From TrEMBL:
The keyword Cell inner membrane does not apply. The lineage of its organism: Bacteria, Pseudomonadati, Bacteroidota, Flavobacteriia, Flavobacteriales. Homodimer. It catalyses: D-fructose 6-phosphate + L-glutamine = D-glucosamine 6-phosphate + L-glutamate. This is Glutamine--fructose-6-phosphate aminotransferase [isomerizing]. Its EC number is 2.6.1.16. Keywords: Aminotransferase, Cytoplasm, Glutamine amidotransferase, Repeat, Transferase. It is found in: Cytoplasm. Residues 43-182, 215-356 form the SIS domain. Its main location: cytoplasm. One of its GO terms (cellular component) is cytosol. It comes from the Bacteria. The gene is glmS.
Amino acid sequence: EKGGYPHFMLKEIYEQPQAIRDTFRGRMREHKGIIKMAGVDDHIDKFLNAKRLVILACGTSWHAGLVAEYIIEELVRVPVEVEYASEFRYRNPVIDKDDVVIAISQSGETADTMAAMKLAKENGAFVFGVCNVVGSSISREAHAGAYTHAGPEIGVASTKAFTTQITVLTLLGLKIAKAKGKISTSDFHMHLEELRLIPEKVEEALKNNEHVKKIAEVYKDASNCLYLGRGFNFPVALEGALKLKEISYIHAEGYPAAEMKHGPIALIDEQMPVVVIATRRGHYDKIVSNIQEIKSRKGKIIAIVTKGDVTVKELADHVIEVPEVMDSMSPLLTTIPLQLLSYHIAVMLGKNVDQPRNLAKSVTVE
Ligand code: M6R
């Protein structure tokens, strides 16, 4: 059932090229210049008239929501707010009929996300579900939705659900931008073309597996780890840190790279590994100076870079390359080595990768 892989997590990491393809297959219709999503088409007025979008989720799905915030705001130019479902539901939130709420959940059974979406519905909002499990409670409770089509995700650490959630939300952003006339036809096509190439690029990123394993060997005994990223890759830093925490039990924190100087930089010494997402398109010069700040305090740098990078390569202790891609889609690639890194560290430490202590696949209690 693990298809020859030692763990479900590794199998699911490797399934990502196919899972992403399955997510956009049938939806991207380049020859017609459209994206087909029935759940959006049937309620297009809600999306066109929405004064803002509110995304509700927990854990990894919340991180996908943060990536979507950056993508949708850039494409559609409407404000997007991303909320922890557990906070939203208990604070008498300001929400009304002009809001479109997007509830993101792999399992579709997360209690807090379910309660938050019900509250939004009671307040008149239109609720759109992004779930992986077909027929799940959240998918049934939503007014409409789009499935991620990632296939069953068994490992407690979410992997392919995350990248397919980002894929669906990218399609959603492009579709609304098109319907609102916020994107030119050529730009729209360029985005679709770029998305179509993602599965091959994920394959390529996966080829670094052995290299990532060697890096894991060096840092497996660390007791802390920092993850830094900017822009579209800030949420990827959060996600990388969550992945390491939950399966290896190493304390890790994700930060927007520029926040370093407001506190976390005090933690840096020669014992501290810092994973930096330093791809070429996204605020590259700023990231390079963040790396220099860490180096001058003797921190160890593991950098995720764009293929062919030279500048960061000279500064970092280790680099892991990912293929070139437009900035907004880079999370789909930069996430891959971070998943592999946490996987290998957890295996080397002898942890139960697929069923980490204290965690369940769906959190149906609050
Ligand atoms: O099924 P959901 O997407 O609603 O689950 C949300 C979180 O419980 C989940 O993403 C959790 O954080 C994962 N274990 C992370 O790998």
